[in-house]
Write a structure and sequence with these properties.
Blueprint: H1 8-17, E1 21-25, H2 32-41, E2 45-49, H3 53-61, E3 79-83, H4 91-102, E4 107-112, H5 115-118, E5 130-134, H6 140-143, H7 168-177, H8 181-186, H9 189-211, H10 217-226, H11 237-244, H12 248-260, E6 264-267, E7 283-286, H13 295-316, E8 322-328, E9 334-341, E10 344-352, H14 360-369, E11 373-378, E12 384-389, E13 392-398, H15 399-402
Parallel strand pairs: 1-4, 1-5, 2-3, 3-4, 10-11, 11-13
Antiparallel strand pairs: 6-7, 8-9, 9-10, 12-13
Helix pairs in contact: 9-10, 11-12
Length: 407
C-alpha cells in the first residue's frame, strides 16, 4: 500500500485555498514525482516532464499547451504539474507569464531538485506567486499514518502517553534503510547499498554537472564521501581543505552546492545568552542518514531530519516562526538541538542511544537559556520519564514515542 505523504495536505492548501503555485523541492528520489501524480489522480490536469524530449518540443511549439486540460464539476481547477522545468533556462519568466495569465483557470505545481533554491537568489520575478515546500524523507509520523499539525504552541511536545502505541519497529527500519521511499519499502540490504552508491554518483555527475560550471567533479564526489565523518560536529572547512588539497573558498563553495542539491544540510549555533559561545561554525547532517556507519551519528541525524521537517513546514505554512539551532560553548559543552520561536528558545533536544540519565549539559543550558522544555531522546523503546525543576520540564523519552508528534 502506498505511503501517504504528509506534504499532500500542504500542497493542496497552497494550490487550492491560497491560489498560489506550489514549488516542491527535495532530494533526488525522495518521491516528488509520485507526490505530483498522487495529486493529479484526484482531479483533472496535465503532467509535464522537461526530461522527455517530446514534452520539450510541445512546450516550444505551444507555450500554453496546457489549455487543453478541461475542468470537471466538483474537482476544482485543472492541475498543471511542471516536473524538472528548472532545467529550462527561462523557466522563471515562463512561469511568471503562465501564472499571471492563467491562475484564474488553472492550478500549478512545480517540482524539482536544488536548482529551485539556487534560482531564488537575487531579484525574484516570481515573488508573491508561489510558496516553497520541501518534500523530506519518510518520517515516523508518515509511516505510522499520522498527520500531526501545529497546534499553536509546544504543549503537545510536552506530553507523552505511556499507553500510546510503540513505533519502535518503524524507527529501527528507518534507521537501517533510511527515509527514501524505495529502499525503505523494499527493505533489502543489498538493494539499499547499491541504491546509495548510485544516488551519490548520479547526484554529482548528473545533477550538479548539468546545473553548475564545476569542473573538478571527482573532488566534489570525494568531498561527499568525506562529509559523513563530520556529521553532528561543528564543520571545519579548513580541515577538509587540507584533505582535498584545494583552497578554503573552493571547499566552502562545494559544500554549499551539496547543500543546495539536498545531499547535506547545516544548522547554525545559537549564541545569544551563551557565555563563551563558539563562533559561526555550523553542524552538518545528511539527508540520507542511513549512509552513516556510527549508530549514534545515524540516530542523531535521523532526529535532525525530523526536526528540520517540522520547523520548515510549520514555518512555510505560516503556522509559526521557528528555527533550528544547536548550542555549544568553548568548554565544549553541547546540546544537539534547540528550536526557537520568534528568536526565543523554546525546546532543547539531546540525543542518546541508551543513556537515560539526563545530560548535565542539557540541564545547564536549559537553565542558562531559560528554556521551558528539554527533551532527551533515546533510541531504546519503552522509556518515558518527566520531571519538573524550578518550573521547567525535562523529559527522557524513547524516540519512537516522541518523534511521531512531529510531521
Amino acid at each position: 500500500m502506498p505511503l501517504e505523504r504528509t506534504l499532500l495536505p500542504s500542497a493542496r492548501l497552497v494550490i487550492d485555498e491560497w491560489a498560489k503555485m506550489a514549488f516542491v523541492a527535495g532530494p533526488r528520489q525522495v518521491g516528488k514525482t509520485t507526490l505530483a501524480k498522487t495529486l493529479l489522480a484526484s482531479r483533472t490536469g496535465l503532467y509535464f516532464n522537461w526530461d522527455i524530449p517530446g514534452e520539450r518540443k510541445r512546450l516550444a511549439a505551444n507555450p500554453t499547451f496546457f489549455e487543453t486540460a478541461q475542468a470537471a464539476p466538483g474537482l476544482g481547477k485543472p492541475l498543471i504539474v511542471f516536473d524538472e522545468l528548472h532545467k529550462y533556462s527561462r523557466w522563471k519568466n515562463y512561469l511568471k507569464g503562465v501564472f499571471d495569465g492563467f491562475a484564474d483557470r488553472f492550478a500549478f505545481l512545480v517540482t524539482g531538485s536544488g536548482r529551485l533554491d539556487i534560482y531564488k537568489r537575487g531579484g525574484d520575478s516570481l515573488l508573491g506567486r508561489y510558496v516553497p515546500l520541501t518534500l523530506f524523507p519518510l518520517t515516523l509520523a508518515e509511516v505510522a499514518g499520522l498527520s500531526p499539525t501545529w497546534p499553536g504552541s509546544f504543549a503537545h511536545l510536552d506530553a507523552v502517553d505511556p499507553e500510546n502505541a510503540s513505533h519502535q519497529e518503524v524507527l529501527e527500519r528507518l534507521l537501517r534503510f533510511g527515509g527514501f521511499p524505495e529502499p525503505y519499502v523494499r527493505g533489502s540490504e543489498a538493494f539499499h547499498n547499491a541504491w546509495g552508491t548510485s544516488r551519490t554518483e548520479r547526484l554529482v555527475h548528473e545533477d550538479i554537472r548539468d546545473a553548475t560550471s564545476l569542473r573538478e567533479l571527482s573532488l566534489v564526489e570525494m568531498l561527499a564521501h568525506l562529509l559523513p565523518q563530520r556529521v553532528g560536529s561543528p564543520l571545519s572547512i579548513n580541515s577538509m581543505r587540507e584533505d582535498l588539497g584545494v583552497a578554503f573558498e573552493t571547499v566552502r563553495s562545494w559544500v554549499g552546492v551539496l547543500d543546495a542539491f539536498f545531499y547535506s544540510f547545516r544548522i547554525p549555533p545559537w549564541t545569544k545568552k551563551v557565555v563563551r559561545a563558539i563562533g559561526k561554525e555550523t553542524k552538518l547532517y545528511l539527508w540520507d542518514w542511513s549512509s552513516l556507519d556510527d549508530p549514534g551519528s545515524r540516530f542523531e541525524n535521523l532526529v535532525a531530519v525530523h526536526l528540520l521537517k517540522a520547523v520548515r513546514t510549520w514555518t512555510s505554512l505560516g503556522q509559526a516562526h521557528l528555527a533550528l539551532h544547536y548550542v555549544r560553548d568553548k568548554q565544549k559543552r553541547e546540546v544537539d538541538f534547540l528550536i526557537t520561536e520568534k528568536n526565543k528558545p523554546k525546546l532543547l533536544i539531546e540525543c542518546k542511544l541508551s543513556d537515560t540519565s539526563l545530560s548535565p549539559h542539557l540541564l545547564a543550558f536549559q537553565e542558562a537559556l531559560e528554556v521551558p522544555v528539554a527533551v532527551q531522546l533515546v533510541s531504546t523503546p519503552g522509556y518515558a520519564r518527566r520531571t519538573v525543576v524550578g518550573g521547567r520540564v525535562q523529559w527522557c523519552v524513547s524516540a519512537d514515542r516522541w518523534l511521531p508528534k512531529l510531521l
